[in-house]
Write a structure and sequence with these properties.
The chain is α+β, with helices and mostly antiparallel strands. The protein has five domains: 64 residues; 63 residues, no CATH class; 171 residues, Ribonuclease H-like superfamily/Ribonuclease H (Nucleotidyltransferase, domain 5, 2-Layer Sandwich), CATH 3.30.420; 69 residues, no CATH class; 81 residues, no CATH class. The protein is 43% helix and 13% strand. The protein has 19 helices and 15 strands. Strands 1, 2, 3, 4, 5 and 8 form a six-stranded mixed beta sheet that branches. Strands 9-12-13-14 form a four-stranded antiparallel beta sheet, with no helix packed on it. β10 and β11 form a beta hairpin. α1 packs antiparallel against α2 and α17 packs parallel to α19. The longest helix has 17 residues.
């Protein structure tokens, strides 16, 4: 390790003690805590430069250093790298200072010639000079962001006043590595506004980062905690849809999202300040005015780094982002329900069917503007289009038990066709059953009872029983069943009876009533 460089103030004291005090080299070294050789070296340099104490006393430290220390030889000239480019390259995934130093050495070696006799710094000096450059960018803690890793989101403090008296809130997003900025006007700062604006930001960037870092808003954070904040179900559903994570910043710690704080400041200066004299009737008009100014902001050149936000995004973040899902996320609400005994759940007065095996189970509803999904332990078990008809039913036949499904498939037309297939008397009985009730569905059980009779006694006997019932002027199920049970349908009604009334004194006969 090289020795520490002597302080010029201490060196000036050594020269004062030698030229003005006339002390020995050993006395000066002991008094100032330096070696005797150092005193000898710098006294000799001052004598060789022809300087006396009066001249030395009038010089400042920088001038004294230039007069005493020799200028570097041409062979000691070091090539200065492009620190701005190196600073941006370090934001790439897997990039290290060691690899950049090797590339720097190779580049300097290619440029080396007699007219350009420079050499590269050693690795330790290369790293030290880069750290000095990084500290000069801003006097605050530097946060290193890998390409495509983080997207910071927040709302700006100022709003845009609309002509109807409302306010347009300004949503701002910024990529961590490049600082590529996105701005959007929203009606409010509700959870739907937060997540919908973030979805539009991801579409603007054309990809999905690994982590989304919002502020600590109540709209997204169900329970704030320094170490384990709990997000709302809608925020978790958003992150699940895009395959990323969402980690809120600590409350009252804006330094956790310094990148978007700076972007908010830039949006206020370069966009909102230019729109201060304009009047807007809607949020859509505000967004139309923001679009060209946002392009201008992202294409403004950096002050100390090469390129601009747009070029940095194209080089760093864009290649590292994950692909967007096929469908854009849609705002959803969640509700816990229990499955009724009829294999349906209720939402806003309408009933939706679920598989009958889940009767009595607790499900989670995910409801969007057009679709209602049923989730059981995180798995989707049913999905329906939303219906606003209160008291109505949306039923999938496969969700019902087998016996319910068969019952649901019956209709007056189908029952009549079934009766006609058996015979005209059976069809007549079915027709009379349906007409006798105020609603045809009330007669379904009686008609299905006839179907069971055909399975038990056969279709021919049922037709004969229906014919007998029609002669008797009845169409009740119980009467037809009794005919079949008592085997009355098997008696041949057309056979002549061999019985005749006997003559008797008490029998007056038909002539008596003439």
């Amino acid at each position: 390790m090289p020795a520490a460089r002597i302080n010029m103030r201490k060196l000036k004291d050594a020269l004062r003690l030698k030229f003005e005090g006339r002390h020995s080299h050993q006395y000066i070294a002991a008094a100032l805590g330096i070696s005797k050789g150092v005193v000898t070296k710098y006294v000799g340099l001052a004598v060789a430069a022809g300087l006396d104490w009066a001249q030395l006393a009038a010089m400042d430290e920088a001038t004294l250093e230039r007069r005493l220390l020799p200028a570097p030889r041409p062979g000691d000239m070091y090539a200065v790298p492009d620190w701005g480019r190196i600073h941006q390259e370090l934001r790439r995934k897997g990039m290290t200072l060691s690899l950049l130093w090797e590339e720097y050495c190779a580049e300097v070696g290619e440029r080396h010639c007699a007219e350009h006799p420079v050499k590269p710094w050693r690795y330790s000096q290369f790293c030290e000079n880069y750290r000095r450059f990084a500290k000069s960018l801003k006097r605050s803690m530097r946060q290193s962001h890998r390409a495509g890793e983080k997207l910071f989101i927040d709302f700006a403090g100022p709003t845009v006043t609309l002509t109807d008296g409302g306010q347009a809130n300004i949503f701002v997003a910024a990529m961590g590595a490049s600082g590529y900025c996105f701005a959007l006007a929203t009606k409010g700062q509700t959870a739907a506004d937060w997540l919908d604006a973030t979805a539009q930001a991801l579409s603007f960037y054309g990809g999905v980062p690994e982590l989304i870092v919002p502020d600590n808003p109540r709209a997204l954070v169900r329970q704030a905690n320094r170490y384990e904040p709990q997000l709302s179900e809608s925020a978790l559903d958003f992150a699940r849809h895009y395959g990323c994570s969402m980690l809120p910043a600590r409350a009252y710690h804006p330094q956790d999202k310094a990148k978007v704080e700076m972007s908010v400041q830039l949006v206020e200066r370069w966009i909102l300040a230019r729109l201060r004299k304009q009047r807007f009737a809607s949020v859509q008009q505000v967004n139309e005015a923001i679009a060209p100014l946002l392009t201008y902001l992202n294409e403004r050149a950096f002050q100390k780094l090469p390129g601009c936000r747009a070029s940095a995004f194209a080089q760093l973040d864009a290649p590292a982002l994950k692909a967007l899902p096929a469908q854009r996320w849609e705002w959803a609400i969640f509700k816990t329900v229990r499955v009724h005994v009829d294999s349906h759940v209720q939402f806003e007065g309408h009933f939706y069917s679920v598989p009958n095996a889940l009767v009595g189970q607790i499900l989670e509803l995910r409801v969007t503007a057009n679709v209602l999904e049923m989730l059981h332990r995180g798995h989707r078990v049913a999905s329906h289009a939303r219906c606003a008809h209160k008291g109505g039913y949306t039923t999938v036949a496969e969700h019902l038990p087998e016996r319910h499904r068969q019952h649901a498939q019956w209709s007056p037309e189908r029952l009549l066709l079934w009766g006609q297939r058996i015979g005209q008397h059976c069809a007549h009985v079915v027709q009379r059953m349906l007409e006798r009730q105020r609603h045809p569905e009330h007669a379904y059980r009686a008609c299905l009872g006839l179907l069971n009779l055909s399975r038990r006694f056969g279709e021919q006997r049922l037709e004969a029983a229906c014919a007998m019932a029609c002669e008797l002027g009845t169409t009740r199920f119980t009467h037809i069943r009794d005919i079949l049970v008592n085997r009355r349908d098997l008696i041949d009604a057309r056979a002549p009876s061999a019985w005749s009334a006997p003559l008797h004194a008490h029998v007056r006969g038909p002539g008596y009533y003439q």
